[in-house]
Design a protein that fits this description.
205 residues, 1 helix, 50% strand, 2 domains, signal
Amino acid sequence: MSMHRRPLLAMSAACLFGAVLPAQAQSPPSTRIRGTIVSLDGPLLTIATREGPHVMVALDDNLRVSALKNVELSEIAPGTFIGTAAIPGPDGGLQAQEVLLFPEAARGSGEGHYAWDLAPGGTMTNATVASQVQGKSGRDLTLTYKGGSVVVTVPPGVPIVTPIPAERTDLKPGAAVFLSATKMPDGTYTTAGVTVGKNGVNPPM
Protein backbone atom coordinates (compact mmCIF):
# COMPACT_ATOMS: atom_id res chain seq x y z
CA MET A 1 0.00 0.00 0.00
CA SER A 2 1.35 3.42 -0.94
CA MET A 3 2.04 6.14 1.62
CA HIS A 4 -0.59 8.29 -0.10
CA ARG A 5 -3.27 5.61 0.05
CA ARG A 6 -2.86 4.89 3.77
CA PRO A 7 -3.79 8.42 5.02
CA LEU A 8 -6.82 8.40 2.71
CA LEU A 9 -8.02 5.15 4.25
CA ALA A 10 -7.52 6.52 7.73
CA MET A 11 -9.46 9.67 6.87
CA SER A 12 -12.27 7.63 5.34
CA ALA A 13 -12.47 5.43 8.41
CA ALA A 14 -12.67 8.44 10.69
CA CYS A 15 -15.61 9.81 8.71
CA LEU A 16 -17.43 6.50 8.42
CA PHE A 17 -17.07 5.59 12.07
CA GLY A 18 -17.41 8.95 13.80
CA ALA A 19 -20.85 7.74 14.81
CA VAL A 20 -19.38 5.14 17.15
CA LEU A 21 -16.86 7.33 18.89
CA PRO A 22 -17.60 8.19 22.53
CA ALA A 23 -19.37 11.54 22.80
CA GLN A 24 -16.85 12.85 25.31
CA ALA A 25 -14.07 12.43 22.72
CA GLN A 26 -15.69 14.87 20.29
CA SER A 27 -15.77 18.66 20.38
CA PRO A 28 -18.37 20.07 20.37
CA PRO A 29 -20.43 17.24 21.87
CA SER A 30 -22.42 15.20 19.37
CA THR A 31 -25.93 13.77 19.40
CA ARG A 32 -26.68 10.29 18.11
CA ILE A 33 -29.75 10.22 15.87
CA ARG A 34 -31.60 7.04 14.90
CA GLY A 35 -34.68 6.99 12.73
CA THR A 36 -36.15 6.88 9.25
CA ILE A 37 -35.62 9.32 6.41
CA VAL A 38 -38.65 11.48 5.65
CA SER A 39 -37.09 13.55 2.88
CA LEU A 40 -33.87 14.91 1.42
CA ASP A 41 -34.17 18.47 0.13
CA GLY A 42 -30.80 19.66 -1.14
CA PRO A 43 -28.43 19.48 1.83
CA LEU A 44 -31.24 19.09 4.40
CA LEU A 45 -32.12 15.59 5.57
CA THR A 46 -35.38 15.28 7.54
CA ILE A 47 -35.52 12.28 9.87
CA ALA A 48 -38.40 10.82 11.86
CA THR A 49 -36.49 9.82 14.99
CA ARG A 50 -37.15 6.61 16.87
CA GLU A 51 -38.39 8.79 19.74
CA GLY A 52 -41.04 10.34 17.46
CA PRO A 53 -40.13 13.96 16.66
CA HIS A 54 -38.77 14.96 13.26
CA VAL A 55 -35.33 16.58 13.10
CA MET A 56 -33.55 18.36 10.26
CA VAL A 57 -29.89 17.57 9.61
CA ALA A 58 -27.68 19.66 7.32
CA LEU A 59 -25.34 17.38 5.38
CA ASP A 60 -21.72 18.39 5.03
CA ASP A 61 -20.43 19.08 1.51
CA ASN A 62 -17.95 16.23 1.98
CA LEU A 63 -20.55 13.86 3.42
CA ARG A 64 -19.49 10.25 3.86
CA VAL A 65 -22.28 7.70 3.44
CA SER A 66 -21.89 4.08 4.49
CA ALA A 67 -24.15 1.05 4.58
CA LEU A 68 -23.73 -2.33 6.25
CA LYS A 69 -23.67 -5.98 5.31
CA ASN A 70 -24.20 -9.02 7.48
CA VAL A 71 -21.21 -11.17 8.39
CA GLU A 72 -20.90 -14.48 10.21
CA LEU A 73 -19.84 -14.77 13.83
CA SER A 74 -16.92 -16.88 12.63
CA GLU A 75 -15.39 -13.70 11.17
CA ILE A 76 -15.11 -12.27 14.70
CA ALA A 77 -11.80 -13.96 15.44
CA PRO A 78 -9.08 -13.20 17.99
CA GLY A 79 -7.20 -10.12 16.87
CA THR A 80 -10.14 -8.45 15.11
CA PHE A 81 -11.26 -5.01 16.24
CA ILE A 82 -15.00 -4.69 16.91
CA GLY A 83 -17.59 -2.43 18.44
CA THR A 84 -20.48 -3.94 20.38
CA ALA A 85 -23.45 -2.36 22.12
CA ALA A 86 -24.51 -4.42 25.13
CA ILE A 87 -26.87 -4.46 28.08
CA PRO A 88 -26.67 -6.31 31.39
CA GLY A 89 -28.01 -9.85 31.09
CA PRO A 90 -29.96 -11.86 33.67
CA ASP A 91 -26.72 -13.11 35.22
CA GLY A 92 -25.25 -9.60 35.41
CA GLY A 93 -22.88 -10.15 32.51
CA LEU A 94 -22.93 -8.10 29.32
CA GLN A 95 -25.11 -9.34 26.45
CA ALA A 96 -24.48 -7.93 22.98
CA GLN A 97 -27.29 -6.17 21.12
CA GLU A 98 -25.19 -5.87 17.98
CA VAL A 99 -21.63 -6.37 16.80
CA LEU A 100 -19.80 -4.16 14.29
CA LEU A 101 -16.69 -5.62 12.67
CA PHE A 102 -14.36 -2.72 11.87
CA PRO A 103 -12.18 -2.86 8.77
CA GLU A 104 -8.47 -2.82 9.51
CA ALA A 105 -8.21 0.84 8.44
CA ALA A 106 -10.53 1.78 11.32
CA ARG A 107 -8.72 -0.18 14.04
CA GLY A 108 -8.66 1.84 17.27
CA SER A 109 -11.73 3.97 16.45
CA GLY A 110 -13.38 5.07 19.71
CA GLU A 111 -11.45 2.46 21.67
CA GLY A 112 -12.80 1.91 25.16
CA HIS A 113 -15.84 0.91 27.20
CA TYR A 114 -18.46 3.59 27.88
CA ALA A 115 -22.16 4.35 28.21
CA TRP A 116 -24.31 4.00 25.08
CA ASP A 117 -27.91 5.06 24.48
CA LEU A 118 -29.23 2.23 22.30
CA ALA A 119 -31.11 0.87 25.33
CA PRO A 120 -31.39 1.78 29.04
CA GLY A 121 -28.24 0.79 30.89
CA GLY A 122 -26.45 0.16 27.63
CA THR A 123 -22.73 0.27 26.97
CA MET A 124 -20.48 0.37 23.92
CA THR A 125 -17.16 -1.43 23.80
CA ASN A 126 -14.75 -0.79 20.95
CA ALA A 127 -11.94 -3.23 21.49
CA THR A 128 -9.78 -6.07 20.21
CA VAL A 129 -11.06 -9.63 20.52
CA ALA A 130 -8.63 -11.47 22.78
CA SER A 131 -10.49 -14.78 22.84
CA GLN A 132 -13.85 -16.41 22.25
CA VAL A 133 -15.46 -19.50 23.74
CA GLN A 134 -18.89 -21.07 23.52
CA GLY A 135 -20.92 -20.19 26.62
CA LYS A 136 -24.32 -21.31 27.87
CA SER A 137 -26.23 -18.45 26.21
CA GLY A 138 -23.99 -17.68 23.24
CA ARG A 139 -20.42 -16.99 22.22
CA ASP A 140 -18.41 -15.27 24.99
CA LEU A 141 -15.94 -12.70 23.66
CA THR A 142 -13.13 -11.37 25.82
CA LEU A 143 -12.47 -7.83 24.62
CA THR A 144 -9.37 -5.83 25.52
CA TYR A 145 -8.90 -2.08 25.22
CA LYS A 146 -6.51 0.46 26.65
CA GLY A 147 -7.03 0.37 30.39
CA GLY A 148 -9.20 -2.69 30.71
CA SER A 149 -11.11 -5.66 29.40
CA VAL A 150 -14.66 -7.04 29.47
CA VAL A 151 -16.45 -10.24 28.52
CA VAL A 152 -19.48 -9.84 26.24
CA THR A 153 -21.82 -12.69 25.33
CA VAL A 154 -23.16 -12.68 21.76
CA PRO A 155 -26.51 -14.54 21.82
CA PRO A 156 -27.78 -16.31 18.68
CA GLY A 157 -29.56 -13.97 16.27
CA VAL A 158 -27.77 -10.79 17.29
CA PRO A 159 -26.94 -8.62 14.23
CA ILE A 160 -23.28 -8.88 13.20
CA VAL A 161 -22.36 -6.38 10.50
CA THR A 162 -19.47 -4.66 8.79
CA PRO A 163 -19.48 -1.38 6.84
CA ILE A 164 -19.61 -1.08 3.06
CA PRO A 165 -19.51 2.05 0.89
CA ALA A 166 -22.77 3.76 -0.02
CA GLU A 167 -23.83 6.86 -1.94
CA ARG A 168 -25.78 10.01 -1.21
CA THR A 169 -28.42 8.62 -3.57
CA ASP A 170 -29.04 5.85 -1.01
CA LEU A 171 -30.55 8.45 1.34
CA LYS A 172 -34.11 7.73 0.26
CA PRO A 173 -37.41 8.28 2.10
CA GLY A 174 -38.17 5.27 4.28
CA ALA A 175 -34.55 4.23 4.70
CA ALA A 176 -33.30 3.69 8.25
CA VAL A 177 -30.37 5.85 9.30
CA PHE A 178 -27.94 6.26 12.15
CA LEU A 179 -25.66 9.23 12.54
CA SER A 180 -23.80 11.44 14.97
CA ALA A 181 -24.57 15.15 14.59
CA THR A 182 -23.76 18.52 16.12
CA LYS A 183 -26.73 20.54 17.35
CA MET A 184 -26.80 24.15 16.18
CA PRO A 185 -28.24 27.15 18.10
CA ASP A 186 -31.39 27.15 15.94
CA GLY A 187 -32.15 23.55 16.93
CA THR A 188 -31.07 21.97 13.63
CA TYR A 189 -28.18 19.57 13.29
CA THR A 190 -25.15 19.10 11.05
CA THR A 191 -23.25 15.93 10.21
CA ALA A 192 -20.39 14.71 8.05
CA GLY A 193 -21.34 11.04 8.09
CA VAL A 194 -24.47 8.89 7.77
CA THR A 195 -24.97 5.14 7.99
CA VAL A 196 -28.02 4.12 5.96
CA GLY A 197 -30.02 0.92 5.70
CA LYS A 198 -29.58 -0.84 2.36
CA ASN A 199 -30.38 -4.24 0.89
CA GLY A 200 -32.44 -5.13 3.94
CA VAL A 201 -29.66 -4.46 6.47
CA ASN A 202 -30.49 -1.58 8.81
CA PRO A 203 -28.06 0.11 11.21
CA PRO A 204 -28.35 -1.81 14.51
CA MET A 205 -26.27 0.66 16.55
